[in-house]
Design goal:
The protein is built from eight helices and no strands. By secondary structure, it is mainly alpha-helical. The protein has one domain.
């Protein structure tokens, strides 16, 4: 658990790393929200079998941006316990492996594959797990209740997509809700002094 006040003066690296960490969370939140809105607007009145998605370069950019946004946060996260740092890196490496597999088996059309094949959401679960870990860390360290909710909701929405439990537009609405919840977490983070993310540097396990 992080201390609320830094025990030592902040270095330039401390400040930059926290800014990058928070920026990754914000960008990921906006991407999730945008994806949900797109599903609501463009998949309205369609069933999962009716979905046809033309390949566009923007789809690949969106797909890669999800991984980059989470990746920069994983690379700059401040955790006292070494085992937790190793765990989140392992989760992210698993997410990257899943992303590579998804890109290959989809023939370079990952978003279309996710929407049309139940295997797609399964391969995104490690990414959701990594984002959920970050959200839970924020909840534990700073009592952001939405962080605990996100740790549950992020993988649950993907399972709903896999099972085709609801229509595409309704599933998109759930993703929109998730995006707003992520933005609420982001808003909490941006309001915090940078030193809160650093805490007491003498407590970091090497």
């Amino acid at each position: 658990m992080q201390s609320h006040e830094p025990a030592q003066p902040l270095t330039l690296y401390d400040r930059v790393s926290v800014i990058i960490y928070r920026a990754g969370i914000v960008v990921f939140s906006l991407l999730v929200l945008a994806g949900g809105i797109a599903m609501v607007l463009f998949l309205d009145k369609l069933t999962w079998k009716d979905i046809t998605l033309r390949d566009r370069p923007t789809h690949i950019v969106y797909f890669l941006s999800l991984y980059i946004a989470i990746g920069v946060s994983v690379g700059t996260i401040h955790l006292y316990a070494k085992r937790f740092r190793k765990l989140i890196r392992f989760l992210y490496l698993t997410a990257l492996a899943g992303g590579v597999v998804l890109f290959i088996i989809s023939g370079g059309s990952p978003l279309s594959f996710v929407l049309r094949n139940p295997l797609g959401p399964i391969l995104l679960l490690p990414l959701a797990g990594t984002a959920g870990f970050i959200a839970m860390k924020e909840a534990f360290c700073f009592r952001f209740v939405e962080g605990y909710l996100l740790a549950i909701i992020l993988p649950t929405v993907l399972l709903i997509m896999m099972l085709r439990s609801f229509s595409p537009s309704l599933t998109g609405a759930m993703i929109v809700f998730t995006g707003f919840l992520l933005l609420y977490l982001s808003w909490h983070k941006l309001r915090m002094p940078i030193g809160y993310d650093i805490g007491d540097k003498s407590l970091y396990e090497k």
